[in-house]
């Protein structure tokens, strides 16, 4: 059975509870923590676990949940922050990969946009690394989005700033550095972000040879990690946690497109942020009702005024939520027109792309959680 919409935050809280218990020394005061955020890793990517020795060793020495349902919207930045704060998007305020603040006219754009580093986007809740720093712990973070931001006046001890799609060499080097910092007591926790799985999923799809190769390469990296932990005699000194922000659907966004140009005059829109399953619109004041009524007739999509967004999304109270939010039915993609569709030319066939972001009713956007070492199998019981 599918998880209820309320479970994501309970899961995030459970993950944070486990991490905090480990860091507090409830099990062994000498143990350090190594956390991996693997972007876009779908819950079933490890179904062939017998042929993934790196992942299998972690599972054999710990616990793996069946799947984790992302918070709404099932996009990267909202769920990065839900996982690290244990709070819904409307509480931590990270409500999209693309956001706009009408008061300052600033934009948050996924990636390396300088304005996205402004504390105002991040200060809605306290992420784990900030909590740890406040408690006198030392945190080293590698390519983790947001680690370069001063959040509530705090930065981690060390931050290797995010770059688009860190390479496998970046990953291996980060693992080596993190283990050395943890081993030498320069760090109490290290966090590593890896984007390759998400990139290949978007470009080639979740069943492609490219995604299978990326998974095998990632598994090789974890085989190396497991070996280095043994070589450094750290098996009794470290806990390892792996999780992801969302999965990936089998749906190509080129197939079912809702073209807003067919229903509204886009010159009446002050701002539009994002394209895809969830789109944010700020219509001109004198055109608001007209825009709302026109969009209300569109099939395969719901349009919500801010205060009419369903409570189950835990979204409408977000500071940066738009005056109109468009939510597509599963499999449908919202854009101005087909010419504005994002896609990739992969060199072998027609341009295309795969997507996530639909709300909780497609199991394929679900992701995974794995915890290794000094963690009881009874601590986290999720199905």
From TrEMBL:
<comment type="similarity">
    <text>Belongs to the nucleotide pyrophosphatase/phosphodiesterase family.</text>
</comment>
<dbReference type="GO" id="GO:0098552">
    <property type="term" value="C:side of membrane"/>
</dbReference>
<keyword id="KW-0449">Lipoprotein</keyword>
<dbReference type="GO" id="GO:0047390">
    <property type="term" value="F:glycerophosphocholine cholinephosphodiesterase activity"/>
</dbReference>
<dbReference type="InterPro" id="IPR002591">
    <property type="entry name" value="Phosphodiest/P_Trfase"/>
</dbReference>
<dbReference type="GO" id="GO:0016042">
    <property type="term" value="P:lipid catabolic process"/>
</dbReference>
<dbReference type="GO" id="GO:0005886">
    <property type="term" value="C:plasma membrane"/>
</dbReference>
<keyword id="KW-0479">Metal-binding</keyword>
<dbReference type="GO" id="GO:0019695">
    <property type="term" value="P:choline metabolic process"/>
</dbReference>
<keyword id="KW-0472">Membrane</keyword>
<protein>
    <recommendedName>
        <fullName>glycerophosphocholine cholinephosphodiesterase</fullName>
        <ecNumber>3.1.4.38</ecNumber>
    </recommendedName>
</protein>
<keyword id="KW-0597">Phosphoprotein</keyword>
<keyword id="KW-0336">GPI-anchor</keyword>
<keyword id="KW-0443">Lipid metabolism</keyword>
<keyword id="KW-0442">Lipid degradation</keyword>
<keyword id="KW-0378">Hydrolase</keyword>
<feature type="signal peptide">
    <location>
        <begin position="1"/>
        <end position="29"/>
    </location>
</feature>
<keyword id="KW-0325">Glycoprotein</keyword>
<dbReference type="InterPro" id="IPR017850">
    <property type="entry name" value="Alkaline_phosphatase_core_sf"/>
</dbReference>
<keyword id="KW-0862">Zinc</keyword>
<keyword id="KW-1003">Cell membrane</keyword>
<dbReference type="GO" id="GO:0008889">
    <property type="term" value="F:glycerophosphodiester phosphodiesterase activity"/>
</dbReference>
<keyword id="KW-1015">Disulfide bond</keyword>
<comment type="function">
    <text>Choline-specific glycerophosphodiesterase that hydrolyzes glycerophosphocholine (GPC) and lysophosphatidylcholine (LPC) and contributes to supplying choline to the cells. Has a preference for LPC with short (12:0 and 14:0) or polyunsaturated (18:2 and 20:4) fatty acids. In vitro, hydrolyzes only choline-containing lysophospholipids, such as sphingosylphosphorylcholine (SPC), platelet-activating factor (PAF) and lysoPAF, but not other lysophospholipids.</text>
</comment>
<dbReference type="GO" id="GO:0046872">
    <property type="term" value="F:metal ion binding"/>
</dbReference>
<keyword id="KW-0732">Signal</keyword>
<dbReference type="Pfam" id="PF01663">
    <property type="entry name" value="Phosphodiest"/>
</dbReference>
């Amino acid at each position: 059975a599918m998880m209820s919409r309320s479970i994501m935050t309970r899961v995030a809280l459970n993950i944070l509870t486990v991490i905090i218990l480990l860091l507090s020394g409830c099990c062994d005061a000498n143990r350090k923590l190594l956390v991996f955020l693997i972007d876009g890793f779908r819950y079933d990517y490890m179904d062939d676990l017998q042929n993934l020795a790196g992942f299998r060793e972690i599972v054999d020495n710990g616990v793996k949940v069946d799947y984790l349902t992302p918070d709404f919207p099932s996009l990267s930045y909202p769920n990065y922050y839900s996982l690290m704060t244990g709070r819904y998007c409307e509480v931590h305020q990270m409500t999209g990969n693309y956001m706009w603040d009408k008061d300052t006219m600033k934009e948050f754009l996924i990636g390396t946009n300088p304005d996205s580093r402004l504390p105002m986007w991040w200060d809605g809740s306290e992420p784990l690394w900030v909590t740890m720093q406040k408690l006198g712990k030392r945190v080293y973070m590698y390519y983790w989005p947001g680690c370069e931001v001063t959040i509530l006046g705090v930065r981690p001890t060390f931050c290797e700033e995010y770059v688009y799609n860190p390479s496998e060499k970046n990953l291996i080097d980060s693992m080596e550095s993190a283990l050395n910092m943890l081993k030498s007591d320069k760090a109490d926790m290290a966090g590593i972000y890896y984007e390759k799985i998400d990139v290949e999923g978007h470009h080639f799809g979740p069943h492609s040879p490219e995604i299978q190769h990326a998974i095998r390469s990632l598994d090789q990296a974890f085989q190396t990690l497991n070996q280095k932990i043994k070589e450094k005699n750290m098996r009794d000194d470290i806990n390892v946690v792996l999780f992801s922000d969302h999965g990936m659907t089998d749906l190509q966004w080129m197939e079912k497109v809702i073209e807003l140009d067919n229903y509204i005059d886009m010159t009446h829109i002050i701002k539009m942020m994002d394209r895809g399953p969830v789109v944010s619109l700020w219509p001109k004041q004198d055109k608001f009702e007209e825009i709302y009524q026109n969009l209300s007739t569109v099939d395969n999509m719901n349009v919500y005024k801010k205060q009419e967004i369903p409570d189950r999304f835990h979204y409408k109270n977000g500071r940066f939520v738009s005056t109109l939010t468009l939510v597509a039915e599963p499999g449908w993609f919202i854009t101005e027109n087909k010419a504005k569709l994002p896609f990739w030319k992969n060199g072998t066939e027609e341009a295309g792309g795969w997507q996530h972001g639909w709300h909780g009713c497609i199991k394929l956007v679900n992701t995974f959680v794995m915890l290794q070492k000094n963690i009881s199998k009874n601590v986290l019981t999720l199905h």
